[in-house]
Design a protein that fits this description.
This protein is α/β, with parallel strands linked by helices. The chain is built from four helices and four strands. Strands 2-1-3-4 form a four-stranded parallel β-sheet, with helices on both faces.
Length: 112
């Protein structure tokens, strides 16, 4: 019997009910290594135990999700970042595209 290593996920959302629901959905297929409620806590948690995947909300207190993701991506470029958002404003969309380009450049593939 072959055992497959589960991806290690760090979850960040300031809404505890949303975080609890997402945790429940992820539990069977992934290893949830932590749940935090703000961007600064996310950066600290990623530093203390680097995840494979970060699932985060854009709008969080103390440090927003985009800034937290940018800080983490600089130190841990291999961590995949999945951003959850209900925002549809062009400014938010453009910030996500900029973050993606920054990540691709940091991985040595050039900007897209």
């Amino acid at each position: 019997m072959t055992s497959t290593k589960k991806a290690r996920i760090l979850l960040a959302d300031d809404h505890s009910l949303v975080a609890a629901g997402i945790s429940k959905l992820l539990d069977a297929e992934f290893e949830l290594i932590g749940t935090v409620g703000d961007g600064r806590a996310l950066v600290a948690a990623a530093k203390s135990d680097p995840p494979d995947v970060i699932l985060l909300d854009i709008s969080m207190p103390i440090l927003n999700g985009l800034e937290a993701a940018a800080q983490i991506s600089k130190k841990y470029p291999r961590a995949k970042v999945i951003i959850l958002s209900m925002h549809t404003q062009p400014g938010i969309r453009d910030s996500r595209i900029t973050l993606r380009r920054r990540r691709v450049s940091a991985q040595g593939r050039g900007a897209s």
